[in-house]
Amino acid sequence: IKIKITNIDIPVAFASAFEGEIIRRKDMRVEFDGSRVDCAELVHTCDASEVEDHKITVVGPEVDEMEDGSKNSIAYVVKVSGKNMQPDFEPVIERKFHNYINCIEGVYHTGQRDMQRIRISHAAFDAGFRIKHIGEVLYTQVKNEFDAVVDKCEVVIYTDPAECTRVRHEVAIPIFEKRDDRLANLTDESVDVYYSCILCQAFSPSHVCVVTPERLGLCGAVSWLDAKATYELDPNGPCQVITKERPINEELGAYEDVDEAVQKLSQGALEHVTLYSIMQDPMTSCGCFECICGIEPFSNGVVIANREYAGMTPLGMTFSEMASMTGGGVQTPGFMGHGKHFIASKKFMKAEGGIERIVWMPKELKEFIADKLNATAKDLYGIDNFTDMIGDETVATDPETLVGFLTEKGHPALALDPMM
Ligand code: SF4
Ligand code: ZN
């Protein structure tokens, strides 16, 4: 029998009540910022002989030795071993770090992988909170929640800048790339099952994500491999197997199996859901979509806006205005929430012609996805540098100017059938 540890040995409180806590610059003692300096967070599966349970090591300066208000590097490697542990579980455990660290009173965490950001408040520091306590939290929570697979757990936290650079570039990034490559080589046709995710039903009761290799969850955080690992870690948990043995229309991505699953999981609120159409029975959206796409009737295309974009789109709506008509677990043909990485997928709106329908995106999003999107456009239609044909806020935020730009670039959407 494994005993759950309920108390964490840290000098501040630990509770989900602190999850939403924001620490302002003036209240912060130190900050760690993966977007500015080398940072990383990683779960690493090791042999049992390489892991000393509950050992926590800090390599580099503690908070006391960092300047008040300074920006620093941090990289933590959580080494785990266990006979049921699989490398596929690593990202599922890593994703929980955000939640664990945020539950610490006076500590704030956002982001993941090598882009995390952490703030420790003056109050937490004054109470005696130090870097090593982050290790204590990670150790305790990983052992608590993943005891089915993790037998031993050791945490090494690097704050020495040179070590952070080494860990980020030589250890973490190669692992992240390997994970992404595994997924990149999978197609919806090459797997036997899809997965549902209902994690968001807490606030969006009829919402169901159907996660496939080529269509990740709309939050951007649940890939098919993650959903599979989540199911294997907890067969009664938020992700369930959806078979795909009874296709209705493969162009639309309609399956009897998928319909049955969403009917059951939405308690009857949904009857039919397609995987590849934005017009016919599109997937529902909760509230945490990374992006929303919506039809733009003047160009026969779609506009995509990401959450970070605060400006106007050619639909005459901002992201939040689009969000107010898309969320809540209801189907709204013509509008759909989705993850950033879905944009470059060969399955993106496949039923309506695919990515050649994309006519506008905020510049930042376009640059983020450019390499992958251009590769997909080359593959599907033989178009080079497709993103050059897509408008952004520097070109147009109204439909007339946008259509002028698309005409000049010879954008393929203009020649397609209207979507409605
Ligand atoms: Fe799961 Fe993400 Fe979909 Fe929520 S948005 S149900 S977390 S895949
Ligand atoms: Zn959600």
Structure description:
This protein has nine helices and 17 strands. The protein is α/β, with parallel strands linked by helices and 420 residues long. The chain folds into two domains: 16-184, Bifunctional carbon monoxide dehydrogenase/acetyl-coa synthase(codh/acs), Chain M, domain 3 (2-Layer Sandwich), CATH 3.30.1650; 193-415, Bifunctional carbon monoxide dehydrogenase/acetyl-coa synthase(codh/acs), Chain M, domain 5 (3-Layer(aba) Sandwich), CATH 3.40.1470. The strands form five sheets. A four-stranded mixed β-sheet has the order 4-1-7-6. Strands 2-5-8-3 form a four-stranded mixed β-sheet, sandwiched between helices. α1 packs across α3 (131-145). The structure holds iron/sulfur cluster and zinc ion (ZN). Zinc ion (ZN) binds at residues 200, 219, 286-288.
